Amino acid sequence: MDTLLESLPAIALGLFLALRGGRRAQGWGLPRVTAYLLVGILLGPHLLGRLVPPDSPGAFLLIGPAAHEVLGWTKRLALGFILFRVGSEFRFAQLRRVGPRILLLSICEVGTCAALVSATVLLVTGDAPLAMVAGLMATSSAPSATLLTLREVEADGPASHALIQLVGLNNLVTLLAFPLVLVVAFDVGQPLVATRTALLALAGGAALGVGMAISLETLKLERERAVGGIVLVLAALGLAQFIDAGSTSSAMLACLAAGIAVSNGSHYSEQMSVAVDAGVYPLYVLFFLGAGSELELGVLADMGVLGVCFVAARAGGKLLGTHVGLRLGRWEGELPSTLGAGLLCQAGVALGLIAALEGQLGERTAGLTTVVLGSVVLFEIFGPILTRDVAVRAGEVKLANLVLTGGTGGARAVREVAGELGQNLGVVDLGRLEAGGALEVRHAMHRAPGTARANLTFDGVLKILGEVGSDLLPVVDESEALVGVISFSETKDILYDPSLRDLVIAEDLAQPVCEPLVPNLSLQEALRRMDAMHVHSWPVVEDGRLVGMLKRRDVYSTLHRAFASGAVGGVTEGQSS
């Protein structure tokens, strides 16, 4: 407990900088994941940790031993959730259509990458056993960076699904083949025991997934499904610990299998996965903070000729192997020719294999360990950028998801917060505001109204209508642009018709808003418009985006305080009745 408490300042600072850095990176056209990693590097022991003495006043804000221990706990949890989401992309209905071709694509990509890296390492070092192990380690991809980069921009399409499936297949092959390669190359390890353990982890995870699929039939609420997903991942991690204590590979396999089983056993699995993602996203950020703090940029200087050749061969193998697989599988026109660039992220599995090598072979593979660590640094920083680029070029990312949605920043943010605090505390002199100019909509509107996404289900619309306490519910798209408004009267006909409730979404119910309010409109004019439309609330729009909701009762409250202060000019009694 003391370790956890000691780590909280550093973790809180890391999360805050990751939040701000992620938004800034998105504005520059970079993935948020890259910003999370860079924040981890900045606060980690290899950068600021070397510049700030451990006993200095600010050292507690850096990722030191206590924070490292806590982030180590979160790393395995986050990896479990990530592999679960990767597994949920393996739907048998889809694989029946493209299964043989996706397997052929994976075989070409893995085989070409392994062969090219092995040949390169053999040519540089003349060490055949080391070349075999290097080739296998190069085949793995980072499921964490790949998945979160695609989820960040809501990439959806054949290329995005293919990337996630290939990442899962790559890591499955790498984890199952690693014990066999160690025996052939160095005559160490117990391949039969390792294979049996891996199969037990897969079978156990699949059994847990089937059990949760059955339970999902009775879990109807979103929060219940979120808890169900968390229970499933925690159970898979616990089972892996029981099967093979301390093994990262068993944990990854169990969670992967659980995701595959539940996604194919229940049509509620997608809702569950989305709910789990929303609940554990901070865990993903902590994962990348921890991963960044472990990356030592100085290792790049120690890679030497072998390291440069390894990086070039791995990149070339991924690109060439994927290109060959696309041609053999006749994917032309369906998947982009640059798909292999989206598979270059490298982290979790590679780092786990490095730890296994150090434990079993020690100094025998020390040179390769340095090379792979340097490769991880490069590919983990630049890989997400390439993955995002593949999805964008494939046309699977909406333009709105590539633009940093606005918001209040800088001095304006300070003014808005000061105004909000002043109004809530009752210390803002509205009379002085009125004396300098008429009260405006921005003085009375709610700046964070309840909204419904355009694709929200009918049940979700009813839920939000019951929570917002307003006669109108604004509907927005992914970029917060106003689509229209929903009133409860428009839902009455559908409310008691079960055949329609499952078909209608928020966009179907939304009525267009021809004349929304704007923040600098006077309250006098706003009331006049609301009286003419016979509404008690109305949306406020700026530059096409919903920025607030004006309610009649809030207008009256604001005007009452203005009257009490003696400033009644610009608003007549008749217009405010």
Strand arrangement in the largest pleated sheet: 1-2-3
What sequence of helices (H) and strands (E) makes up the elements? HHHHHHHHHHHHHHHHHEHEEHHHHEEH
Strand fraction: under 5%
Q: Which CATH class of the largest domain is shown? A: Mainly Alpha
Profile the largest sheet: 3 strands, mixed
Mean pLDDT: 81
Radius of gyration: 28 Å
How would you describe this protein?
- The chain is mainly alpha-helical and 577 residues long.
- The chain has helices at residues 2-27, 32-43, 48-51, 65-87, 92-125, 128-139, 143-152, 158-186, 191-216, 222-243, 248-265, 269-294, 304-328, 348-361, 366-393, 410-425, 430-436, 458-468, 492-495, 498-501, 506-509, 523-533, 552-564, and strands at residues 452-453, 472-476, 482-487, 537-542, 545-551.
- Helix content is 66%, strand content 5%.
- The longest helix is centred in the N-terminal third of the chain and has 34 residues, at 92-125.
